[in-house]
Amino acid sequence: MNTAPRILFALALSLILCCTCGAAFAQHADRAAVGEAVAASPGSTSIDSVVEVQKYNRAIHIMAMLLVGFGFLMVFVRGYGLSAITATYLMVALALPLYMFLSSRGIIGGPKAGVDHLVFAEFAAASLLICAGAALGRLKLHQYLVLGLLFIPAYMFNEWIILENGFGLIAHGAFVDTGGSIVIHAFGALFGLAVVLSATSKREQGIEIESDFTSDRFSLLGSMVLWVFWPSFCGALVSPEMIPQTVINVVIALCGSTLATYVATLVLRRGISAADIANATLAGGVAIGSTCDFASQPAAMVIGLIAGFASTFGFAVIQGPLQKALKMIDTCGVTNLHGIPGLLGGLAALFVVGGIDRGAQLAGIGLTIAVALVTGLIAGKIVALFGRRENPYEDSEEFLSE
Amino acid sequence: MNTAPRILFALALSLILCCTCGAAFAQHADRAAVGEAVAASPGSTSIDSVVEVQKYNRAIHIMAMLLVGFGFLMVFVRGYGLSAITATYLMVALALPLYMFLSSRGIIGGPKAGVDHLVFAEFAAASLLICAGAALGRLKLHQYLVLGLLFIPAYMFNEWIILENGFGLIAHGAFVDTGGSIVIHAFGALFGLAVVLSATSKREQGIEIESDFTSDRFSLLGSMVLWVFWPSFCGALVSPEMIPQTVINVVIALCGSTLATYVATLVLRRGISAADIANATLAGGVAIGSTCDFASQPAAMVIGLIAGFASTFGFAVIQGPLQKALKMIDTCGVTNLHGIPGLLGGLAALFVVGGIDRGAQLAGIGLTIAVALVTGLIAGKIVALFGRRENPYEDSEEFLSE
Amino acid sequence: MNTAPRILFALALSLILCCTCGAAFAQHADRAAVGEAVAASPGSTSIDSVVEVQKYNRAIHIMAMLLVGFGFLMVFVRGYGLSAITATYLMVALALPLYMFLSSRGIIGGPKAGVDHLVFAEFAAASLLICAGAALGRLKLHQYLVLGLLFIPAYMFNEWIILENGFGLIAHGAFVDTGGSIVIHAFGALFGLAVVLSATSKREQGIEIESDFTSDRFSLLGSMVLWVFWPSFCGALVSPEMIPQTVINVVIALCGSTLATYVATLVLRRGISAADIANATLAGGVAIGSTCDFASQPAAMVIGLIAGFASTFGFAVIQGPLQKALKMIDTCGVTNLHGIPGLLGGLAALFVVGGIDRGAQLAGIGLTIAVALVTGLIAGKIVALFGRRENPYEDSEEFLSE
Fold it and tell me: pTM value?
């Protein structure tokens, strides 16, 4: 086992983190004083503070999705569960401070404050985990960190263009994507596909991805944790007045995709696939993202039903032939869970949101696709420089035996 | 495998859902406009909005109980875990929109608004999951959906009689059942028993229900998730001022039943049963439901201790002989976890709540028992028309092998 | 199997609980009246009530850490998972009402009200679970209860000295330990070590503690649940204004320890240990506790990095030789996860918090170490009187086979 490049990488990473810290020291040194000042005056809580704490609650729900949700959903690969969970831990631990550092220093995108800052960083981490799902099992653990180092700036670049009027292309607020169907889900999935296309070799195509009864149950646990907290993901930054409507829409869309998945897996496969149940049930949450605060309840149900059916169709019918044709792998099927439903969700806004700027919406979707594919292809080439697995999907390549 | 009736059923279900959607479109079409109006005025958050968002937090906690809690508690059956989780997904996805549709259209019961509406629908879904626990492993997946279609209207009918002065029988507010010991737990358990009595054949009696070490650990995970969020279940619709007292009562009752379960399982079985620990520990939460906002802390402890002991006694001593005598099965032991402790909880209100209308309380309990048994027996006959399992408790009958 | 002492113990426990209840009845009997009064006036919610409900949300997050987090983290021991989970259930169910009883009766420490009372009790339960982690697998289930009965008063005694000016030693507010690095984590770990030193025999030293692939995944699940909700643990009693700064610091410290753990396990072991990943990733949360509301973000990152490295160093390098030298066992490695990082966190306050009373801080740390070791040694002797396992780390000694 050649550990030299790993350790080099570890040192480089530590260096980067130390620089991060050093820079930030200069910026935040007077925080302690603020702390003492505020702590001295109890009983004077403002409603704005209370609203901020409520946002924090949703930020914690998203954290549960990132670690327990995405982490355990990816445990379905038999014999690769320790790596999947560890990779999740590492990517979240890298993405959150990296996003907050780049943003607070003004390196990419505008400044965000307080809990909003944390939530935006969590959105970026979610998108990274989606991206990594495509390549799951093909990378060594340190390569997931390299992937994160490349992904986060690309994600922020796209976020800046689409949502913050970067280059003056799309007016502020013109692009409708409250829960991130496009900016988070579709971007992550497309970036991931591009990475896989450019980073994996043909020799790796033929390897079967297998699950077993216990890995399936862990995966369904992750799926349920994602389902449960999805309303907080979509409603994270929505104003308190809009929370009830938003979260009920998300719940209804998830109910729709869950029912549609059952019908679709039965009709398309003539039997039930545990992978479909774990994944496509969530497609309604992906697709309702763009319009979660605008849609009516029946529109939410229709979006959920369509997304669930489309996602299951992707898993059951499209994935096999497509992967053979393109000579690629999408381990977790993120195309089917995040790619297709994400794009559907972004397009649904054209029909659901009255007075929408159709040009801006279509331009935002097109730009996101372009940025994701271009930066993803480049990132894949770089990630491939940092090593190559000998045995895909095996914990034993990197973990010590007990 | 005869898939024709399944597909017919799937089509019928889709049809029902589409009608639901169509009807709802007419009703809610102007929501988007509201959304834009509110989003335009930040900084003007009212305390009522904040209270509503807090209710939403409890609604999410209940959602975690429904999916991760009930879902994984039912994974204890060896080799039936994928079906148990999928059935949970399907029943929740059916129950929530069905309840909200029937209620918002005024078909059964009075209208509810905002997050309250979601919470009432979650209560109904919880009761359905309890009901299904009795029949777990005896139904095919589409039969759980049929069960849900029949259960939810029956549940709402009972809710209307007991809590909303249906037929003028019980005055508004006279029946004390804040956390649903009677209306949710006892109703679900009794309905489930009636379903099993009328839907399963004698041939099925002799089959052993087995668990293994891993299915037990998943079941204990579900149990702990239920324990953790139970205070939010009982306090979901309680006013902010009453939350501290209510949630501490629920925690104390759960502590009581947990300690009592350990003592009881040891004394009654001369060894510890993992199933007792996973289930009877929760009996305090069931039993404190009716009086969670009224009880004193010591009363909560006493209710929890009694409920934990009674529940363990049910699992360890009553269940075996009773099932032989009645020639029935109660797969998850919902009689012991939800039936007996639920009735205890409803009756405890007679002693704990000062100035209670005893006649109304007893009438409500009696009516709930009657409605649950009658509608459950009918529902069982209908559910039986939709198929019959060849191999109870086996995922492989419906799931594709990996 | 000698069940006589168990049943005696069970009876004694019931007796204690009944006395608890009886005493408390006298104190709280008029609560029901209050309940009815408040319920009668909706729409008049004060901002203080809302802030209290937000505290309750964090209390529920901590409950998830206690049961699902600590409980499943301890499932890593192969073949002892049912016992680990049951022991967690029992200790939490004992600790919460015992703390609330001793405190509300004024037996140890000053009175606490409302949700604060519950949160302080949860802190004590967390410390007990840490303590039990050292002895995990060496005690019978009823011995964990005896341990709890001895631990909680000792914990409260130390809390009273350090935080409530007990004996007039440390001025109110002079000791900086918001998230409990010293009072909760270091105290629990040191008490646990002392218990193990005095309670276990030499014969038990040689037994290997083994994990398997599934027990590791359950352990990582517990780890992630702890990680996710850790910000609510540290920020539980912090004022709303300070929540954003506090929780972001905790998240950053956890990110730091997670990254450092990966690098350290790779460098120190030349391969990745699942146990390091499950445990040392959390060291940042332990260490940031004392200064979570004062630290700057870069200071939080540095604390997290150091804690993660130190904790992994403890697991990988120190633990083996130390246990041989001291002829003791620390099953869960609480020295490395809670002991060392806890002490680091308490000392970090000397550098991070401006204007800190260094004497009080050092005195508090020293006193905590002394109280924990002395009371722990005594407790270990008493616990040992209540039995001795024949087969450490085996569920089958106490659980019935399926």
Answer: 0.94
